[in-house]
Design a protein that fits this description.
binds ligand LZUJQKHR, amino-acid biosynthesis, Dihydrodipicolinate Reductase, domain 2, eight-stranded mixed beta sheet, about 35% helix, Rossmann fold, binds 1,4-dihydronicotinamide adenine dinucleotide, cytoplasm, alpha/beta, about 250 residues, lysine biosynthesis, elongated, 4-hydroxy-tetrahydrodipicolinate reductase, EC 1.17.1.8
Length: about 250
């Protein structure tokens, strides 16, 4: 069985990963909270991650935490030579650079969304934007009221996919007198209740509207995808990997 360490183990996704671990074993978790254990999994402070990776003989780290915590644990993975699956979102340019540096030393797989449906959605969006060249584009995402980063990592990834096809300028929310420019894409983030994660791209023009959307119904979908990615990553060469590599395998 793959021996997994979970970064952010006391969080919503940490719990979902422990629950989804059937073909793998969560042997230790990292979190900044004072808790000693969660669901029988010992909790260690991220500053002690390198020692814990050795002590618990960890094969791979699965991370759903905060950018600062992910980077601390990535450094520990480099020190000990352990692969890492990064699910945390909201990295700035410097943080992304540090993850890329880590991937030169260990296998590192980063995804803003570990659902297979989002992989397919991104491919459909790429085709639709390429084909419907003059249509207006508007991107919406909705998440639970505890989410701290906006727009979501997934929405940012979808925007990257769109920008590979078309030179659009994102406008984050609109307010006041704000006439739409032809080359803009509105990006909207809503936060309410316990909504797991919804993303929608609307393409409108030529007397028609195409809506491409995805809704996650349970955090289990992200947890299962991340654990699949973790099992796939063990034994690979150092480098930068993406979830599409796992889905296509
Ligand atoms: N890639 C994907 O498929 C998904 C990504 N996410 C992302 O995962 C992250 C966590 O999401 P949730 O579990 O909902 O958040 P949460 O707030 O419930 O949990 C965050 C966890 O990080 C821990 N933490 C805080 N500071 C830390 C540090 N310095 N070092 C290590 N751990 C630290 C907290 O103690 C907690 O355990 C977010 O960035 C979210 O956007 C969430 C769902 C799916
Ligand atoms: O914070 C969440 O919950 C989620 N975060 C990811 C994101 O920022 O895109 C993925 C998913 O939508 C859930």
């Amino acid at each position: 069985m793959t021996r997994v360490a979970v970064n952010g183990v006391t969080g919503q996704m940490g719990g979902a990963v422990i629950e989804a671990a059937i073909d793998s074993e969560v042997v230790v978790g990292f979190a900044t909270s004072d808790t000693d254990a969660v669901d029988g999994v010992p909790v260690v402070h991220p500053a002690e991650a390198a020692a814990a990776l050795r002590e618990y003989d960890v094969d791979v780290v699965v991370d759903f935490a905060v950018p600062e915590g992910a980077l601390t644990v990535a450094e520990a993975c480099v020190e000990v030579g352990v692969p890492m699956v990064v699910g945390t979102t909201g990295f700035d340019e410097d943080g992304m650079g540090r993850l890329k540096d880590a991937s030169e030393e260990v296998p590192l797989l980063k995804a803003t969304n570990f659902s297979q449906g989002i992989q397919v959605l991104q491919r459909l969006i790429s085709e639709a934007v390429e084909t419907l060249k003059d249509y207006d584009l508007e991107l919406m995402e909705t998440h639970h009221n505890r989410k701290v980063d906006a727009p979501s990592g997934t929405a940012s990834s979808i925007l990257d996919v769109i920008q590979e096809e078309r030179d659009v300028e994102p406008v984050y929310g609109r307010e006041g007198h704000a006439p739409r420019e032809d080359d803009e894409i509105g990006v909207f983030a809503r936060r309410a209740g316990d909504i797991r994660g919804e993303h929608e791209l609307v393409l409108a023009g030529n007397d028609e509207v195409l809506s491409l959307s995805h809704r996650a119904e349970d955090r289990g979908v992200f947890a299962a995808g991340a654990l699949d990615a973790a099992a796939w990553l063990v034994g690979r060469d150092a480098g930068w990997y993406e979830f599409g590599d796992v889905v296509d395998a």
